[in-house]
Amino acid sequence: MCLRSNFALLFALLCSFLPYANAQFRIKNGQDIEIEESLHSVAIFRIVFYICAGAIVNVNTVVTAAHCLKDVEQDELVLIAGIADLDNRGSGQTRNVQCIHYGTGYDEETHFMDIAVVKVEKSFDEDSVVPISPISLCDYRLEPGMTIQVSAWGRISETSRGYSNQLKTKYVDIVKTQECKTGYARVCSVHLSETIICAESGVCFGDSGAAGVRNGQLCAVVQGFSSSNLPDKYTDVTNERVRDFIRSKM
User: Fold this and answer.
1) Where residue 22 falls among pLDDT bands split at 50, 70, 90?
2) Domain annotation covers residue 73
């Protein structure tokens, strides 16, 4: 009885998706960068606490992961753009949220359409001394072996305490979706939805919602990771259903 209970707990920990706003994500073994290298990046706060990242897709709109925002009151959300160091948040472009559009059919269990389009109350200023620049959506399919760049403010390792305030980045390769799905089904008894794509391990607590960028375009959005040596999971922006949803709400 006790052994079974302990095994169940271990299994749950190893296969935890960890895609929740309160379980914050950091780029593992990433390199520090300045905001000029990731002008689309947005830090999302619940009042004063960093919870997730996002990407500016036009001056009124930020794309992030749906699970980041689902359990947070809209008036608690604060978006800050134009900064790499969260200690300098007061110098960034700070915006409140006007409305949130969750992915059509979003399912918290399967993470189908784990995408959110956030409209801000006041447009971001592209001509400000605080730099920002919207990122365009991917106009091609991601394929295994392609490399994406991920930048966010998550933990630097799964065991680290606290969070480095500096924006970090890492390059990861897309892996075969079927192999990823088979791995999660075998190890975790989890069936990944059609809107998920996988990449080699690289993200950690606090990186949820960050953009996966290739050739200067938004191709994926960080969804979560596993502690059992499985690939990381992303919402696939190159999936027609996901891309069309984002475009319809921009």
Assistant:
1) very low
2) yes
CATH code: domain of residue 172: 2.40.10.10
User: Considering only CA atoms, which of 136, 127, 132, 141 is closest in space to residue 174?
Assistant: 141
The token pair at 79 is 């978006």
Decide: 210 and 246 in contact? Cβ < 8 Å. no
Radius of gyration for the alpha carbons in the chain, expressed in angstroms and rounded? 17
Domain total of the chain: 1
In a domain, 82, yes or no: yes
3-class DSSP assignment, residue 70: coil
Beta bridge pairs of residue 212: 150, 220
What pLDDT, on the 0 to 100 scale, is given for residue 164? 65
Decide if 218 is inside a domain.
yes
Share of the chain above pLDDT 70, in %: 84
Is there a contact between 203 and 24 (Cβ–Cβ < 8 Å)? no
Model pLDDT, residue 55: 98
Q: Quick one: which of 173, 143, 145, 168 has its CA closest to 155? A: 168
pTM for this entry: 0.88
Helix 2-14 with 177-188: angle, nearest 10 deg: 160
- Backbone φ and ψ for 105, nearest 5 degrees, come out as 85, 10
Round to whole Å and give the CA distance between 242 and 250.
13
Whether residue 124 is predicted with pLDDT greater than 50 in this model: the reply is yes
Could you count the other beta carbons within 10 Å of the beta carbon of residue 110?
Answer: 16
